[in-house]
Design goal:
By secondary structure, the chain is an alpha+beta fold. It is built from six helices and five strands. It is elongated.
Length: 171
């Protein structure tokens, strides 16, 4: 491969690292053409961009990045595919579906500005996206307000009944 081509690929990988906030390094060794095609279709449906890369070129893209990806260098062995995504837990859920078959396997991941190892798939699945966290917070904030409103509404009927009874009672 010519140096110009390598430089172009490294620049494209660097752009992807800046464009997507989360990515997973995955080992696809052992997948046949049909299984790889099915995985690519599932990635496309889940808005995951999957690229098979040379480890040396990915390492150079990591080194050119502003973020320190040095702990991930150990995962750059064998066949490596990078899954880029905007939602941190989507690739983890996809990989969990394939866990029974053992292929593809997680090598490492960069999600929520943290580096995860190959043994932390369950932690990655449990990560909540920004929208899920916002929905949880809104639900928590609405719950006490609903309780107060319902208590006031039910109390209004009770207070009205007590006042009416007291008003009708002869002195």
């Amino acid at each position: 491969m010519k140096k110009e081509v390598k430089d172009t690929i490294i620049a494209e990988l660097g752009a992807k690292l800046k464009e997507y906030p989360h990515f997973y390094l995955v080992d696809l060794a052992g997948l046949n053409a049909e299984a790889t095609s099915n995985l690519r279709r599932k990635c496309f449906k889940n808005e995951i961009k999957m690229i098979v890369v040379k480890n040396s070129l990915l390492r150079e893209a990591f080194q050119a990045s502003d973020v320190d990806f040095e702990p991930m260098y150990g995962a750059l062995k064998g066949t490596t595919a990078v899954m880029f995504c905007n939602t941190a837990n989507v690739p983890a859920k996809l990989l969990k579906e394939y866990k029974k078959e053992g292929i593809p396997t997680l090598k490492a991941a960069y999600a929520e500005e943290t580096i995860f190892g190959a043994d932390q798939l369950e932690a990655l699945v449990a990560l909540k996206s920004k929208n899920e966290v916002i929905a949880d917070i809104v639900a928590l904030l609405q719950s006490p307000a609903k309780n107060v409103v319902s208590a006031l509404q039910s109390g209004a009927n009770t207070i009205h009944g007590v006042l009416k009874t007291l008003g009708e009672r002869p002195e």
